[in-house]
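Quick log. Single chain, no ligands specified.
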Amino acid sequence: MLKKIKNAWPFLIIGFIAILAGGCTLFFLNHNSTAESSVKEANANAQVITVNVTADGFSPSHIKIKKGVPTQINFKKSNSISCIRDVVMEDWNMYLHLKRGSNLYTLQDLEPGTYEFHCGMYMYYGEITIV
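-> predicted structure:
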């Protein structure tokens, strides 16, 4: 029995190192250090909001936008190593399946208030406040 453990020891170490290296690779590939959110005025009549979708959730998770101004939200998914595949907002009957890159959703007839959105699995949340 002791001889079997001695023979298996190198394989256990190699397996542990492989798992550790794979985990580090996934973490660093998914980490988006340049993720910045912004509210940009596309022109005098519209605003565009970028929400970065990462393994850690939505960034920013709290958004303020102007009432009465046509708005587009860009849910930007930088890679596919995230469990966030969908964005849902029941108040506006919004269901958006996310692909890698830009995912635009247009908001119209915005009334003042705070509205919640979440991923399809209800694990990550965000809020949109209309002012």
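The beta strands are 38-43, 46-54, 57-59, 62-65, 71-77, 86-89, 94-97, 104-107, 113-119, 125-130.
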